[in-house]
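Pilot study result, target chain (423 residues):
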Amino acid sequence: MRVLLVGSGGREHALAWALAASPLLARLWVAPGNPGTAELAENVPIAATDIPALVAFALRESVDLVVPGPEAPLALGLADACAAAGLRCFGPTRAAAMLETSKAFMKQVAETAEVPTARWAAFEDATAARAHLARVGAPIVVKADGLAAGKGVVVAKTLAEAEEAVADAMERGAHGEAGRRVVIEEALSGEEVSFFALCDGTDAIPFAAAQDHKRVGEGDTGPNTGGMGAYSPPPVFTSALEAEVMRRMIRPTLAEMARRGAPFRGVLFAGLMLTADGPKLLEYNVRFGDPETQAMLPRLRSDLLAAMLAACDGELARFDLRWSAAASLVVVLAARGYPAAPETGSVIEGLEEAAAIPGALVFHAGTRREADGTLRAAGGRVLNVAATGPTLQAARDAAYAAVERIRWPGGFCRRDIGWRALG
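Predicted structure:
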């Protein structure tokens, strides 16, 4: 198989690492890739959002499968363009990707499919949104309807915070077009879990679950980020809960999307809240999570490429996945100033020493390699240090031991990844 992987972050490095292990793989390209993917594949200088150039490259190189990493190319119709060109794409069409690109659409689908979720309302007028807030009170959640790079959700503890979030999104344009409409929903309490299922339009099989750490600071303090670390499997997410989520959420959603003429193929990421009344859906994403993928893939014992092909070809009903009994944990190293104003350009050393820790893997997320070989920070979330172990504590110990070997004064990380399970 000749495969084109689209994206440039830590998730894409982890996907490239897993795909490169497949006996089915003949050649792997990553567009645009990063210094980590360059060690596993050939990077090609095409932006993840340049749909015509990606399709043209795939046709020119006789690519057998296109694998989108981030949501942006899916929102722009990469899967549709691939289908029109006769190319396989492991990802949903633009219409099916609306499960992530419009939170109001996702809520409508969930409501029709009778998926357990928070009570909600959508608004395109700020005055009406504020009137609704005055009626329901706080705590309350305000979400930009569209894609906002992980920064469009405010869990407001007070009415003033909620009103500020509405003003930011709808009047000040903090999230651009994504915030012209907002979804306001009840604040649920419990533990959050990220659950992933592979889908082929008709059938779905469980992939794995992880718990992410969104806040920038220890003890879940400070602003939200794209994710500061994750671990898998989360002990709180039992096999019985997995079966319930497949039965009450994933399969009904697939059936509803097919009924709407937009069958979902690819990976469906359900953000869950485990409430006292059972699991409830917070959101759907239509791609692998970042950094959850970096925590899950080291545990996968099946061929990821074969699984993706089964999803593309409608064969998941006859497919299953094997997983290691090991636990896995990933720590995100971010540049100073992240998430507000990350400082880029600082030199990073010690990655080989970090990777020498038994069970450890280092994934590049926001780095660049100079012509002389120097590695520098080139983003907010810069490195992902993952490790597996027989227990979650062993995995955490190995991950932080690897972190200690990285010489990067310009970076920082949370020191409590896994605290929900380990304290």
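One observation from the pilot: The chain has a mean pLDDT of 96. A full batch analysis is planned for the follow-on phase.
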